[in-house]
Amino acid sequence: MDVSHPIRVITPTLDAPVLEVLARTTQPLTGREVFRLARGGSDRGVRLVLRRLVRQGVVLADEHAGSTLYVANRLHLAWPAIEALVGLRASFLDQLRAQLRGWSIEPVHASLFGSAARGDGDAESDIDLLLVHSDGTDEGRWGAQLEGLRDWVVTGTGNAPLVFDVTRSRFAEYVAAADPLVTEWRRDGIHLGGLPIETLIRSSRRKPA
To answer: Which residues contact 53 (CB under 8 A, 6 or more apart)?
Structure first.
């Protein structure tokens, strides 16, 4: 599943980004504005999609001052299903956080990074997760939790999870080495649990007295 645009599971055509744009606003938009915000297809293609959705009643069109304004018809019987699909990304993140909160050994830090966090992946992209655990953690219990999380991600999304799992001391080594991965974690990461990434980085830079 494309976790950035989960509606494409059902509608892998230009309809998907058009519906996403309209679902995110109650402001009427011109066809050109929908095209600009959809970031895909062509201006003509977007207008054809809008006309088709108007015929189906999912989108309302209003001729205004020489241009046509489009807005989602939130009273349409299909609209709740469309909104649910558009909102699956937020639901995915909420459920990831709930999975982690249920662990008997909580992570020092957990975040989503990579293309799934940036929103530029696709249905074939890995789900990249950064997990930091305390030194001395029971590796057997911790490993069992990781396997459960991997299984949940595969079952829930169809995507392969790529878990970057390190101890807190190993994380500090990455910070001390100014590893490019640290920059990526800071720039793209979506916090899922434990300490915020900046707090963890600051504590990793402190030298023992």
So the answer is: 15, 18, 19, 59
Q: Encode pLDDT of 64-85 as tens digits.
A: 778 899 999 999 999 999 999 9
Cβ atoms of residues 7 and 83 within 8 Å: no
**Distance, CA of 133 to CA of 106 (rounded, Å):** 8
Contacts of 147 (CB under 8 A, 6+ apart): none
Radius of gyration of the CA atoms of the chain, in A: 21
Please, what are the domains in the chain? Answer: 6-85 (1.10.10.10), 88-205 (3.30.460.10)
* Whether 60 contacts 71, CB under 8 Å: yes
Amino acid type, 72: A
Distance of CA 154 to the CA centre of its chain: 15
Give the separation between CA 158 and CA 190, rounded to whole angstroms.
Answer: 20
- 79 C-beta neighbours (distance < 10 Å), count: 18
Beta bridge partners of 161: 127
The answer for residues whose C-beta is within 8 angstroms of residue 176's C-beta and 6 or more apart is: 204, 205
Q: What is the DSSP letter of 57?
A: T
The ranges of the chain with pLDDT < 70 are: 207-209
